[in-house]
Amino acid sequence: MKAAFEVNGELVEVDVEPRLSLADCLRDVLGLTGTHLGCEHGVCGACTVIVEGQAVRSCLTLAVQADGERITTVEGLSPEEGLSPLQAAFRKHHALQCGFCTPGMVTTAHALLSEEPDADADRVREVLSGNICRCTGYVPIVEAVLEARAAYRKKEGES
């Protein structure tokens, strides 16, 4: 089947099997390996990408379901000149160790802060509770997300 969608600002058209997951399409067909596959059951959050502004488990989404959608992967969150404020906060707070969960944590946090730039620590913990990290203990991750909030707040006069 054919599917056409936007990934990180670029229109792509893929010819895929109807049963191919979006995660496998991103990684194997499009070469965007920042999206990680962990449990492949939608439980761990490592495969989280942003579809039309919402954090979505790409292992549970079929590539053909993405037809016409706008998708952002962890690669799409980085500006050309370096790290986004959220990524820089992750680095500053040592909010990663092995890094396996990091793409899912960053995309989930980005989706949250895009909608709720004033999210408090409890809200951050609640939203990130669907992403499993076996290394950091979550404290530095929450601290990084809280620090990045300022970058998501609209400047006065912006709509």
Question: Main attributes?
Answer:
five-stranded mixed beta sheet, Ubiquitin-like (UB roll), 5 strands, 159 residues, alpha+beta
Description:
By secondary structure, the chain is of the alpha+beta class. It has two domains: 2-77, Beta-grasp domain (Ubiquitin-like (UB roll)); 85-152, Orthogonal Bundle (DNA polymerase, domain 1). It has five helices and five strands. Strands 2-1-5-3-4 form a five-stranded mixed β-sheet, sandwiched between helices. Strand 3 and strand 4 form a beta hairpin. Helix 2 (85-92) runs antiparallel to helix 5 (139-152), helix 3 (102-115) packs across helix 5 and helix 4 crosses helix 5 (139-152). The radius of gyration is 15 Å and the shape is globular. The mean pLDDT is 95.
List the helices and strands and how they pair.
Blueprint (H helix, E strand, L loop, with lengths): L1 E6 L2 E6 L6 H8 L18 E4 L2 E4 L12 E3 L12 H8 L9 H14 L5 H8 L10 H14 L7
Parallel strand pairs: 1-5
Antiparallel strand pairs: 1-2, 3-4, 3-5
Helix pairs in contact: 2-5, 3-5, 4-5
